[in-house]
Amino acid sequence: MAQNPLKFIGFLIICGMFLTILLTASVIFKDLPSDSVKNLPKANIVDVKPPNATVNSQVQKDKLLGGLLPSGIDETSCLSRYESALYHKELLHKPSSYLISRLRNYEALHKQCGPHTKLYNRSVELIKSGQYNGSAECNYLVWISFSGLGNRMLTLASAFLYALLTNRVLLVDPGVNMPGLFCEPFQDVSWLIPPDFPLFNQFSTFDQKSPRSYGYMVKHNVISNSSTLPPYTYLHLANDYDDQDKLFFCDQDQSFLKKIPWLVMKTNNYFVPSLFLIPSFEQELSNLFPEKVTIFYFVSRYLFHPTNSVWGLVKRYYQAYLERADEKLGIQIRVLETDAGPLKYVLDQIIDCTMKENLLPQVNRSSEPIVFNQSAKQRKTISVLITSLCPGYSEEFRKMYWENPTVTGEIVSVYQPSQEEYQQSENLLHEQKALAEMYLLSLSDNLITSAWSTFGYVAQGLGGLKPWILYKPNENRTAHNPPCVRATSFEPCFHAPPNYDCKKITPTDTSKMVPHVRHCEDVSWGLKLFE
Fold first, then answer.
1. What is the pLDDT of residue 40?
2. Among 225, 473, 166, CA closest to 349
3. How many H helices and E strands in the chain?
4. Name one GO cellular component term (predicted).
5. Which CA distances in Å does 433 have to 325, 427, 436, 443?
6. Contacts (Cβ under 8 Å, ≥6 apart) of 311
7. Cβ-based neighbours of 273, under 8 Å, separated by 6 or more
8. Quick check: 130 and 233 in contact, CB under 8 A?
9. Phi-psi bin for 49: left (phi > 0), alpha (psi -120 to 50), beta?
10. What 3-state DSSP class applies to 381?
């Protein structure tokens, strides 16, 4: 039976097409080593790369920040916990193995003794009964929400470190906004104090005159005249604390406080530097933090994970305005004067700092044009992120770089995420924006901060940045000269430290007691940690 000629021709056409495909594939892959073809990745539906980086094993490993963060916590409920590593620079320092071990032990303790556990319920009964026989299965430190957001973050980090040193479980007063700002840092058991806690409605009334205040009890000899221990003691460590309150920083007083099952603390100070002046804590602190200037850097990255709402603000702004810049400069402006800004002498001081420290390029104010050899794509791009309650400062910077070319050809863009005009500590959206701005500042390559500002302290600590600190302007409302000073440590400053030698029982300069605790660059009487 003869073959159909049409079928035969069709067969030849199909064979020709198949040979063409084979020849094309051989051209594409002929220069690849054999294992390259074998190991080609499978196609992904979505391939999201971290900013300014390629996906690699180092990024995956750093997600836990060198072991600082525990693994296994649901990622979708708090995206920032593990995503922040993709935006921050690689860790400047590695957490010590001892710190990592102690954090895992703390997490186990928190799970065992945290809110609504059997041990917690038993411990709460001590407060309700007012009776304490000297034996408790769990000990607690209750942190009262107090002051602005920057202060709250600094004091909460201080309280957590004190809890770690004294084997206490840290419980947090949710205040007005805390649950809307930060994710729960610990798995399974909350760190927020339940609203049915017996002292919950008294938090706002605690002060130096409270009968259960430690300073009050010392001043009125309540402790020495009593044969029993109280189930709880209030610690007043705010700026207005007195000499009796400051005994908290003495070893012999810590010996008493460690016997009390419940300590309730109110403070607006980053008191970590003075913990180094307590001899019984010094060795443990050195074991936890061999590099002493990393305390807030590690504790903040461990504790403070912005909620998904806040993290969305951070990511969207960073990706839209900052990610593609060759260099990012953060400028945090906090003006204590109540006048409507921008204040010329403040603006002059900031510009003077950026120019003298070569943080921003000079501008050409002459009418003579400047011709650059590079194309716009080849010229360096600088994104300036300004945070301030007043919009005027960013407008002046933007105008300066719009109306005048830079002398050396850089392209400078100026951005300000929010313009809230005044601080609104009880407004959730206002504080969410403030927290997002702290994180955005921490992603800068260089940072300028305002003297005395806890907002700036948080940003520099989160990013591990040594900022240029703007001096407070002169009292006659002129710019300070020099305009700024470079910080030698990214640790925050303790604004109201004790000036008391517990051993000699005399006033003293506590900046001279140990070599790594000295006065701050911006607050001459404050204390700060240095290497």
1. 34
2. 473
3. 18, 14
4. Golgi cisterna membrane
5. 22, 10, 5, 15
6. 79, 80, 83
7. 491, 494, 497, 517, 527, 528, 529
8. no
9. beta
10. strand
- Relative to beta strand 506-507, strand 500-501 is antiparallel
How far apart are the C-alpha atoms of 81 and 75, rounded to whole Å?
7
| Cα–Cα distance for residue pair 530/229, rounded to 1 Å | 38
Is residue 42 predicted with pLDDT exceeding 70?
Answer: no
Residue 226 class from Cβ within 10 Å (0-12 exposed, 13-18 middle, 19+ buried)?
exposed
Please give the Cα distance from 310 to 300 (Å, whole number).
16
| Max Cα–Cα distance, the chain, nearest Å | 122
Residue reference for tokens 């140990």: 514
Per the DSSP assignment, residues forming a β-bridge with 387 are 332
- Partners of 61 in beta bridges: none
Using DSSP, state whether 55 is helix, strand or coil. coil
- Write the pLDDT tens digit of every residue in 400-419: 999 999 999 999 999 999 98
Q: Which amino acid, residue 200?
A: F
d(CA 503, CA 277): 11
Task: Answer yes or no: is pLDDT of 213 > 70.
Answer: yes
Q: Cα–Cα distance between 235 and 214 in angstroms, integer?
A: 6
β-sheet bridge partners, residue 529: 517
Can you read off the two tokens belonging to residue 475? 């009292």
- Joined tokens for residue 481: 């000269």
Tell me which residue of 111, 153, 108, 473 sits closest to 297, measured CA to CA.
Answer: 153
Rg (CA), the chain: 29
Encoded tokens for 85: 């590593």
- Strands laid side by side in the 381-387 sheet: 411-415, 381-387, 327-332, 446-450, 468-470, 484-486
Going by C-alpha positions, the residue among 265, 257, 214, 218 that lies closest to residue 238 is 265
What is the model's pTM?
Answer: 0.87
CA dist., res. 302 & res. 296, Å (int): 10
Highest mean pLDDT range out of 25-34, 90-99, 371-380? 90-99
Cβ distance 251 to 281 under 8 Å? no
Residue 39 pLDDT exceeds 70: no
C-alpha distance from residue 208 to each of 137, 222, 236 (Å): 29, 14, 6
Q: Which two tokens stand for residue 292?
A: 């002493």
Helix axes 149-166, 97-113, angle to 10 degrees: 90
Query: Residue 317 in 3-state DSSP?
Result: helix
Percent of the chain scoring above 90 in pLDDT: 76
- For 188-210, what is the mean pLDDT? 96
Q: At what angle do helices 454-463 and 428-442 cross, to 10 degrees?
A: 50
3-state secondary structure of 377: coil
> Could you tell me which of 488, 490, 487 has the C-alpha nearest to residue 468?
487
Within 10 A of 436 (CB to CB), how many other CB atoms are there? 25
Are 217 and 223 in contact, with CB atoms under 8 Å apart?
A: yes
Residues 210-220 have a mean pLDDT of: 95
Phi and psi based region of residue 480 (left: phi greater than 0; alpha: psi -120 to 50; beta: remaining): beta
